[in-house]
Design a protein that fits this description.
With 315 residues, the chain is an alpha/beta fold. Helices cover 50% and strands 20% of the residues. Keywords: Cytoplasm, Membrane, Nucleus, Signalosome, Transmembrane, Transmembrane helix.
């Protein structure tokens, strides 16, 4: 495989696709483990499906996916099933069409090209989304790779090969809410609220740390470009300029008003909580005084009665 694609396409991947592939793999793996007799460990299963979305010019946006019926022995696809699923999606999302397919594994295999070629009559340039289900705690990036196919001449023979393509994660409001909800689910092992808070703060710390490292790299790159140590690239400078133009929007008058309003509301809630605690403390003190009087005054009267009646004295 070549190192990177030269098509110039921009890929945007939505989290729903990753969730669908992960769910598909988990179900197939659970079914395989349930049917096994407990003997030797079987290799991890591979799942297949189609990815759908839209393409606007040079931008390809992958919104959703569905499972694919594929026979790995004959390398054949269930075409009626694909056409039926595409027809159903067209009724709800008329602008979506099949962009390519997905699978699971650590790397693209030679047999994957059979499925890729089989989908070329639906999309002449299908994309291949590969999810690596293996858990690697040291990995920082998402275990997702997007491949394109390019025609290369190898040993005088033209051949289609997979080439890696870069992508970005694109989300809509519903996806952000869903992903945030899943991220804050209570663990099944009965983890405490402190554990969840620590995990949340660790995630925020990692995100800020990564942002800081990226900003440092960008700053060093611009300094080196200014000194003439590296050649000037106008395309990257335009991207940096576009990024910097977003920052003044945070200092707008509307943002300041909204920020002050939220800040004042927070202070008001804190003051009300403090007054409530003080009121509760005053009521508690008053209650203790009343209880003391109700208990101590009759006891004191009883002592005086005994002294006067029986001539008792206190030592």
């Amino acid at each position: 495989m070549a190192s990177s694609s030269s098509s110039g396409l921009t890929f945007k991947l939505h989290p729903l696709v990753i969730v669908n592939i992960s769910d598909h793999y988990t179900r197939v793996k659970s079914q395989a483990n349930g049917c096994s007799d407990g003997g030797s460990a079987s290799p991890p299963p591979r799942v297949y499906g189609c990815v759908i979305g839209v393409q606007r010019g040079r931008t390809v946006e992958i919104f959703n996916s569905f499972e694919l019926l594929y026979d790995p022995v004959t390398h054949s696809l269930d075409r009626p099933f694909i056409e039926k699923k595409q027809e159903l999606y067209k009724k709800v999302f008329p602008h979506f069409y099949i962009l390519g397919w997905y699978s699971t594994g650590s790397d693209a295999e030679e047999s994957d090209m059979h499925i890729h070629k089989a989908l070329m009559d639906i999309n002449e340039s299908p994309v291949y989304v590969l999810l690596n289900p293996s858990i690697n705690p040291a990995q920082k990036d998402l275990p997702v790779t997007i491949y394109e196919s390019e025609l290369h001449v190898i040993d005088g023979i033209p051949q289609l090969i997979f080439v890696c393509s870069s992508y970005t994660i694109e989300t809509v409001e519903a996806e952000r809410i869903s992903v945030d909800h899943v991220a804050h689910l209570k663990p099944s092992d009965g983890g405490s609220a402190a554990t969840q808070l620590a995990a949340h703060l660790t995630g925020i710390h990692s995100a800020i740390k990564m942002l800081n490292s990226r900003i440092r790299v960008l700053h060093h790159y611009l300094v080196a470009m200014q000194k003439g140590e590296i050649p000037c690239e106008n395309s990257l400078l335009r991207q940096v300029s576009s990024l910097l133009r977003r920052l003044p929007a945070i200092e707008s008058e509307k943002f300041q008003d909204d920020f002050l309003m939220e800040y004042n509301d927070t202070l008001l809630i804190a003051y009300l909580a403090m007054f409530t605690n003080c009121s509760r403390y005053d009521i508690w003190v008053f209650f203790c005084v009343i209880q003391t009087c109700l208990v101590f005054v009759p006891f004191k009267r009883f002592c005086f009665f005994c002294i006067n009646k029986f001539g008792m004295t206190t030592s």
